[in-house]
Request: fold
Amino acid sequence: MKRALLALAFCGCVNDDIVLYETRVRGTVTAMAAGTLHLEFHHETSFGQRALAHPLGLFERRVRTVSQSPYSLDETVLYPQQKGDGLVIYGWLDIDGDGVLCAPGKTPEPAGLFRTVGFPSHNVNISLLLDRQCLGSESPGF
Amino acid sequence: MKVFTWVCDGFNRHRSGFRTISTALWLTWVCGTGLSLSLSGCDTAKGIDYDGRRILVVDMHLHPGEWDAIPEDTRKFIGSRFPFPLSLNPKTTAEGILSAEGILSELDKARVSQAVLFAVYAPRTVGIATNERVIADTATAPDRLFGLASLRIDNFRTEKDAELQRLRTALANPSMIGIKLAHAHQHFRMDDPTYFGIYQVSSDLKKPVYLHTGSSPFPGTSSEAPYTDPTYLEPAVKAYPGAIFILGHLGYDFTDQQSGSLEACIRLAKTYSNVYLEPSALGSKGSDPTGENLKTAMQKIRDAGLVDRVIYGSDGPQSPGFVKDYLSRTVTAMKASGYTADEAQSVFSGNFARVFRVAPAK
Reply:
């Protein structure tokens, strides 16, 4: 755990320990167009008392310019270990530059989701294919 | 007058179990002082006085619940909004007003005759208030309390059909008069057809669906347009003309305290006869300190000829006294924007009775 990072977060008069696990995510993102790539890093399942547990749980966003496909991805993220387990990477491509996935009346834009296996790991290889139009990360369409 | 109000409120609190003043003390105070006060001045009749006319009020937006069914970050947020000294023990304060008894007490203080309690399944943001809990709460006052059922969205990948069936089962209870959704809190796009089966249920059972629109101050909320802007709902509104869509909060931007998607809400209501509007929460002291935003919204709705599409709600109980205060602020906004007594009657109870087919309380 030499690369595990222990951070003490002070919020008001409450002290919470947050354990962040460093992970390097490498691989490719494939899409049929160029544009701005919006990436989201989620827990696959977020912890919570009884019924408050739920799928997904966003902990990091990144934005990258994609001029060719496949795009080589190399991102290092800090994973909050106590908030959930598993790692899911979601992405969508902003083709028209409006910052919104599939605004009404605009060009349909592609999205994709990759579920990692064998996590936790400090090195993760992914192949993210953006081939579903207009789906949010939560969509059962993935 | 303030003294009178305090006595009446104290009586109502006592009746509802808050026991802030004893019966003996109350009777002594009222009957034994020799003051020239009469009980007839202690008006406990339901409704508001609007330009000399008594108008019944239905509050279509209230949240029951349990403190432990709210995520920790949201509990901190809620606690921070309670006034001192209630903020010192937020769990006790919250559970006092989130129970059926607590809500009835808040309704009595505000002289609201009927109300609708929302089931909620938003484990990432505002937590869970189950359909079963709401049904049990409405049973404590079946002529005054009704419910909106909801369902889990986050497990649709594996449980979609089961969740839709659970929704239908809940709606089979006569106290459950509609469906509650909050795309921003439950994290699903308004235009994703995967979820349109919910509107089919609404259409089949003739139970209107209430939808949170606009941004939200709660931690973990989806703030992007597809989750907050009702423009994204238009394909569903078109596809399900048999379902009634009630756009909650008028698309208000609670983050920046601006009108947000108000114009989109008005456009949808003008375009589609199955779209209604609900002005809760946006005009609260915290979200609209001057009251100007609520006044502007109510004015625009009236100017658009949509008074018959507005159903009043507060989004209480939030904190003790909120239900009453929000009603007062809404009356002020409507008077300032020229609503007649007939129009106020439509907004506060008439439109609700027509849309939900609920008889006014006796």
Q: What stands out?
A: Chain B touches chain A at residues 68-69, 71, 123-124, 127-128, 153-157, 160, 187-189, 191-192, 194, 224-227, 231-232, 234 (CB under 8 Å). Residues 53 and 245 of chain B are 30 Å apart (CA to CA).
